[in-house]
């Protein structure tokens, strides 16, 4: 029988140590700034995979130095299986992209000039190497691995999910603005601001889902699988839709 007001079994005790609170705050600040600052430089795009792989290693090293364990971050050996829920969500995401790509009326949703100009080899590299290593592995390790664990150490789980997701939304400000500009959707300042806010809100909401899945499954592999199906699946679907929409003689 659980005593009323006592912590639930398996609930970690919250730390009040200044070093743990400081690490959580520093992690929020670094991640909020990283993508919006380094993403401005052409060399980051050119060395995207290598730089983000190094950033992943650096984040894990800093987390370990702060006292976080592999189990805290969701990738201890027993946490490797993503679970049926994550597998089902990933399959649903992939199936949705496929449906959007094959239904002509839905294809405009996938229109992205950054993808339309790529050939099959470039799309394969994006979907198999650049996105899995440079985007998914880095972002999931940084947010659902390190940041969420650092915040969970000093605050309740719901608060940790909210803060992690808010920082994830801030992380996407500059990439969202770049996508709007490339696709000619940022010429009017008022519309650009509204679309930027909508994009950031959408990535924040997706962050809530990924963080919830991480907490629910206990495994970092769960959000990794869903994030991979969403991003790589979206890339492949956008290219397929563009190819299907081209005239035969193009």
Describe this structure in words.
By secondary structure, the protein is mainly α. It has one domain (18-244). It is 74% helix and 0% strand. It has helices at 18-38, 42-46, 48-66, 70-73, 84-102, 113-116, 120-152, 157-171, 173-182, 189-217, 221-245. The longest helix has 33 residues, at 120-152.
Amount of helix: over 70%
Q: Over the alpha carbons, how many angstroms does the gyration radius reach?
A: 19 Å
Strand proportion, as a percent range, falls in: under 5%
**Which regions contain 5 or more consecutive residues with pLDDT less than 50?**
1-10
Overall structural domain count: 1
| Biggest beta-sheet profile | none
**N-to-C span:** 71 Å
What would you call the structural class?
Answer: mainly alpha
Number of helices: 11
Number of strands: 0
The succession of helices and strands, N to C, reads HHHHHHHHHHH
**Arithmetic mean pLDDT:** 90
